[in-house]
Predict the 3D structure of the following.
Amino acid sequence: MRYYPVQLDIRGRACLVVGGGAVGTRKAETLAACGGRVTVVSPAATSALRQMASEGRVLLKERDYSAADLEEMFLVIGATDDEALNRRISADAEARRILCNIADRPEICNFILPAILQRGDLVITFSTSGQSPAFAKKLRQRLEAQFGEEYGVFLELMGAIRRRLLARQQTPEAHKHLFEALIESNLLELIRAGRREEVDALLERFLGSGFRMEALLNPNHPPHTP
């Protein structure tokens, strides 16, 4: 296996994208969504990128790339259609020991980006190690059909339950069996079907009174009364 699988915490870290086209826009949007402090350098930019800049989500510098742009950067993504420029970005990053990805050029990257399927806090990543991005896309389409939005709701609910139990000063080991039972139950299927009353009944059966889906997911909202 050539690549070491890892998920980076980039919150508050400086990230550079070189290239303001469709690919650069997608890369900048993902980095910003993950909390990165994103700078985009490109003499031209898409309207979506300019909109992101106007909202303060990215810093857009509409000019040519310079090696000085890498100063204090945590990572850089090259997303231009200029092969010579992409190689220069890679070499500049390597000289500074900065994480570098060049779109569609795995041979000049020191990390590559996997295909991503996200359902709330559930993040599934998969990679063909750069051998076939088209096949990775096909796999993602298959998984999109298999993993619906209910998985995100399920994880949000499980996280809320965990926080509620920990607030009672119970150790994680004390309620491990409860989570295992919930996972083995039909909770996920009930969420998928939108059968909230049955979800509440199941939660109360396993966890006791006071554990209801709406209150767990919206703790700051007043309880619903008919």
Notes: Residues 150-217 form one domain. The chain has three domains: 1-113, 114-148, 150-217. The mean pLDDT is 92. The beta strands are 14-18, 37-41, 58-61, 75-78, 99-102, 115-119, 122-126.
